[in-house]
Amino acid sequence: MKVHIYEKLWIVGAALMIAGFLGAMAYAAGRHAVHPPSHIETIDPLTVRTGSEFAAPEIRTLEDGTVEVIGVAEMFQFRPSTIRVPVDTPVKFRMTSPDVLHGFQIAMTNVNVMIVPGYVSEMTVSFPRKGEYLILCNEYCGLSHHLMYGRLVVE
To answer: How far apart are the first and last CA of the chain?
Structure first.
């Protein structure tokens, strides 16, 4: 069985392209510290409702002026369901889930985070415009998933 020269060239070309792409990814990861995100903080999902800071979700202002939102995404609600924050202020969201995988997306913004049971998801953003934003769960979490929403009010 003879392999045609053009087939050999295509095979070699494809192999070189794959090697080049893998090399570029390795270079970027090593040189520019581009690494996939990892979960920093873990929590026992069984204690979310009783023995942790998430037992009583709240919105508080820290010493540096940052607003911290301690929240829980659970079947089929966000706690707190309405979040009020000042305009142009850093807002740190700390979220977890006691039951299943959820999404936390604030419509018309770049906030879009997976809430995984057993992990604390944290992100800090600021909102430059006053208004009301819809908070959605964008990970299917059960039969009443479509009823899971909240509200962010920027004042």
So the answer is: 75
